[in-house]
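User: Structure with nicotinamide-adenine-dinucleotide, tokens only please.
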Amino acid sequence: MSTQPVRIAVTGAAGQIGYSLLFRLASGELLGPDTPVALQMLEVTPALGALEGVAMELDDCAFPLLTEMVRTDDAEVAFGDADIVFFVGAMPRKAGMERADLLEANGGIFGPQGAALAKAAKPDVNALVVGNPANTNALIALGSAEGLDPRRVTAMTRLDHNRAKAQLAARLGVTVNDITKMTIWGNHSTTQYPDLVHCEVGGRSAFDAVGDEAWIADTYIPTVAKRGAAIIEARGASSAASAANAAIDHVRDWVKGTPEGDWVSMGVVSDGSYGVPEGLVSSFPCTTRDGEWEIVQGLDIDDFSRPRIDASAEELASERDTVRELGLI
Ligand code: NAD
Ligand code: LMR
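Assistant:
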């Protein structure tokens, strides 16, 4: 077993995603049974009491890998020497809202926290923004993360990626293990594009395997893209356990690497690939190795996919313009 713990910061640690995430991090589900972890938990001041309760429960689990817990309302303390950061702390939407409606309420959180990240965390930190609207919050964080390599901050579309696999598996009567090369392009919003053209089922294009373009356009894509709203409608609260699970998937694969012949969806800073304007934080097919990500290159974008990728990129550009107008970047 390594002796130095991996320092994992979680913001919004007393919230509902935090409550699913922290226990899995402490049990070793992210980094495996040989890696001790220190949890550095950030909350707003009024929630420190609730956070204390979460810490008491973590204590009561007697997790062998959990070496240390920090509870704080100071972002620089929470991010101190952090190897991994989960930016979860932000308001969730309610029924009837779009995620972009949260920009004004949540955007203000990410400038100061981006600055604190750059100041306090390890320079090669792996940071994931979960709080909505995740892509543009990541853009805001990067805007004030002076001196930090922009590749260190990513946004979560892995929940959409997992949803897209599950919906496809159900339609085709296969398991998610039969599905590779799923991609969510663009924004974690209703404009996202789950791409079955490049996705493979048993080595064959999933688009062809489904063989019904109208179902893909009119049922599959909207079902995946609006799943968050469907969960809110059914549960009366936004997704939490599945979001925590996706956050673990995202960071685990980023740190440990993607398998040969497959890729994952990650919101990353665009380098202009596939016509997505440079600088936007957009979801792409990515491979990872040694804690670094690369956008998969060389995919042919057909007439079905092109307008959908463009529409989501346009939405991201408009969110960027809004946060500029709000003075957040
Ligand atoms: P929640 O309201 O249960 O918890 C959020 C927590 O964040 C609260 O405890 C709150 O006190 C804390 N918080 C607020 N401002 C903070 C700040 N400045 N610093 C630190 N903590 C702060 O919400 P939740 O259900 O855990 O969801 C959190 C966010 O994640 C929401 O924005 C939600 O929409 C988003 N989300 C994203 C995805 C995704 O796929 N990207 C999936 C699910 C949820
Ligand atoms: C989700 O996709 O479940 C989350 O982003 C929560 C939401 O507001 O939809």
